[in-house]
Write a structure and sequence with these properties.
With 158 residues, the chain is α+β, with helices and mostly antiparallel strands. It is built from 4 helices and 7 strands. The mean pLDDT is 89. Bound molecules: coenzyme A.
């Protein structure tokens, strides 16, 4: 049970969730960011290419069977094994502030740990920096390749 008395289910993303998930990302981010997200989904689907982003794993949050939030994890081929990053986290505005972003983050951390990661990174938008600070992330002084939009935050997870 999430805060505000809503039953929130977190489960793995499936191909059938693509349209709804991209809509949520489209609402949470700028047009430029949302178009990058669509590109990432494309890379994930195209198994024939040499990927820079590997090990993508996405989760969705459901309330009454409707997808209301999403987050994923990935690593770039340039990262050391113990690094993973958070990929496109967003919650529909009418469901924000009741703990769903935290549930998605905690599930992503659990998954990253199960893959041997000890640090989780996020290129945070300006708006979300307060959220990640609250969730024990701190500004990172590292350079992670490839450099992405946003401000790099890191959290030790193991
Ligand atoms: C960032 C985001 C995913 C957070 O999701 P959420 O479901 O609202 O987060 P939670 O309800 O779990 O919030 C946990 C705590 O952080 C706080 N918080 C949430 N967003 C915040 C923000 N932008 N700034 C400061 N604090 C924030 C909440 O108030 C809550 O505090 P509390 O525990 O004291 O009540 C959501 O605001 C969002 O989709 N933003 C737009 C997309 C985006 O910028 N994503 C970041 C990608 S880098």
């Amino acid at each position: 049970m999430g805060r505000a008395g809503l039953k929130v289910v977190i489960r793995a993303y499936a191909e059938a969730d693509k349209r709804e998930t991209l809509q949520i990302i489209g609402k949470g981010f700028t047009n430029r960011e949302a178009s990058l997200a669509r590109y990432h989904f494309g890379i994930n689907a195209d198994k024939g290419r040499k990927h820079v982003w590997v090990g993508l794993k996405r989760f969705v949050a459901l309330v009454n069977g409707r997808i209301v939030g999403t987050a994923g994890t990935y690593r770039s081929v340039y990262y050391p094994k113990q690094f993973m990053a958070l990929d496109w986290e967003a919650v529909l505005s009418e469901f924000q502030g009741i703990g769903i972003g935290t549930l998605l983050l905690n599930r992503s951390i659990k998954y990253a740990k199960s893959k041997g990661a000890r640090w989780l990174f996020v290129y945070s938008t300006k708006n979300a920096m307060g959220f990640y600070k609250k969730l024990k992330f701190a500004k990172s002084s590292r350079t992670l390749k490839p450099v992405e939009d946003g401000i790099l935050y890191e959290r030790k997870i193991a």
